[in-house]
Amino acid sequence: MKITAFNPLICSRHAEDTVKLFEALGFEITHTKENFNGEGITDFRMKDANGFHVDVTTAGHKLPTPNDQTVIRINVDDFDEALKFFTDRGFICPLDDQVLDGTSSKDAILLAPSGFAIRLIHHIKERD
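The structure assignment produced for this chain is given below.
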């Protein structure tokens, strides 16, 4: 398994304000994915002049608490291998083992036994 991207992802009920904050810090939106998984969720990919990335998502309404949550985004070249790597180490998928398999990506939210969260993603270049 090769990690192809690694950066923070902020899940927020106030994503627009969070995007504006990072824009004020010099980040620019490089990609927007709207209506993610048909659930009305918008994901913003942002990058600054130094090449640092931060992602912001409007999926905060799905969180079990009223606070925003920061997750580690980990893109990999082999989703199934990475998922097995983490689940073999006790990570669980809190959304009923839901793996989102879209036209351009496969991803899942995973929680570590100690409580931190990652969003595991594999971008699909072509579908067979």
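Interim note for the steering committee: The chain has a mean pLDDT of 88. The first strand starts at residue 3 and ends at 11.
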